[in-house]
Automatic annotation (TrEMBL):
It holds the Pfam family Methyltransf_11. GO terms for molecular function: methyltransferase activity. CDD domains: AdoMet_MTases (cd02440). It comes from Streptomyces milbemycinicus. It is an enzyme of class 2 (transferase). Residues 13-33 have a biased composition (Basic and acidic residues). Its EC number is 2.1.1.-. Residues 1-11 have a biased composition (Acidic residues). Coiled coil: none annotated. This is Class I SAM-dependent methyltransferase. Residues 1-33 are annotated as: Disordered. Residues 79-178 form the Methyltransferase type domain. Keywords: Methyltransferase, Transferase. The keyword Transferase applies.
Length: 280
């Protein structure tokens, strides 16, 4: 996540600079392939193999109902964008939906396969997995009744309107599209869980991407910043109606630190923004 660049010897250099679609996708694919094992090791327990957790606050779709009532999910064709190990898709399948879990990272999808293999005896069966870029969805028009994403793809793409338009294209009229991203206000603060993460250190209005690059200047990790207003305009430009914007509060039970997310900061500033949209 963004904040003040911190450079260490032999580490990629952190900076703020432009990164286009192609460079961002290439960086994401490489970064998530290299870091999937560590990510799943560190966060897999919190996410749960078959729970739908919207972000580090721990908001659970089983309680939030942002996709609509759980009993209304049965029989729906659902697309999870930037699915990682497909935990959310597994929850959708348990509700009787027919999910497809899409991710750019082969290694993340290997973890989805691993979880499904380990759980072979229980549950509704393996999740359909597709390796692809969210900016070019390999599906026919109007193939899905629902799309969702918990921090998948959208924070990492240079042109989120492309993703919105693609999701719009593959959804059927009236379908819901719900996605979570880092709350835009976080970009104004250092990405630190402690008190040092509570003082504004950068302009909220600076949209320059956060980039980690190797010694040749090649991006190895990219995150893109949009303001809250930008995100609303992206949704509308994609052809969606915005039904709700949810800013989960930090719950008392959650004592986890996850990068810059922590109880200290979570009690003071929002960490996640969830956009609940409907296809026109
Ligand atoms: C923070 S993880 C979220 C995954 C899952 N929802 C979770 O909570 O673990 C972000 C995921 O987005 C995927 N991703 C990044 N850029 C993408 C893109 N352009 N297209 C598809 N997936 C992408 C990454 O590979 C990664 O699995």
């Amino acid at each position: 996540m963004a904040g003040e660049p911190e450079n260490e010897p032999d580490e990629p250099t952190a900076t703020r600079r432009i990164a286009d679609d192609a460079e961002s996708s290439r960086a994401s694919r490489g970064w998530w392939d290299r870091n999937a094992d560590e990510y799943q090791e560190e966060h897999g327990g919190f996410l749960g193999d078959d729970r739908f957790i919207w972000g580090p606050e721990g908001l659970d779709e089983a309680e939030a109902g942002l996709l609509g009532p759980a009993d209304g999910l049965k029989g729906l064709d659902a697309l999870e964008v930037g699915a990682g190990a497909a935990q959310c898709s597994r929850w959708l399948a348990a509700q009787g939906a027919r999910p497809v879990a899409l991710d750019i990272s082969h290694r993340q999808l290997r973890h989805a396969l691993r979880i499904d293999t380990e759980a072979r005896t229980a549950g509704p069966g393996p999740i359909a997995l597709v390796q692809a870029d969210a900016t070019a969805l390999p599906f026919r028009d109007a193939s899905f009744d629902l799309a969702c994403s918990a921090y998948g793809a959208i924070p990492f793409v240079a042109d989120p309107v492309r993703v919105m338009r693609e999701v719009h294209r593959v959804l059927r009229p009236g379908a819901r599209w719900v996605f979570s991203v880092t709350h835009p206000i976080r970009w104004a603060f250092p990405d630190e869980p402690g008190p040092e993460g509570l003082s504004v250190a950068a302009s909220y209005f600076d949209r320059t991407p956060y980039v980690e690059q190797d010694e040749t200047g090649r991006a190895v990790y990219v995150e893109h910043h949009r303001t809250l207003g930008d995100r609303v305009r992206d949704v509308v430009a994609g052809g969606f109606r915005l039904l709700d914007l949810v800013e989960p509060e930090w719950p008392a039970w959650n004592d986890q630190e996850w990068g810059g997310w922590s109880p200290l900061r979570g009690n003071l500033i929002p960490g996640t923004a969830i956009f609940v949209c409907e296809r026109g």
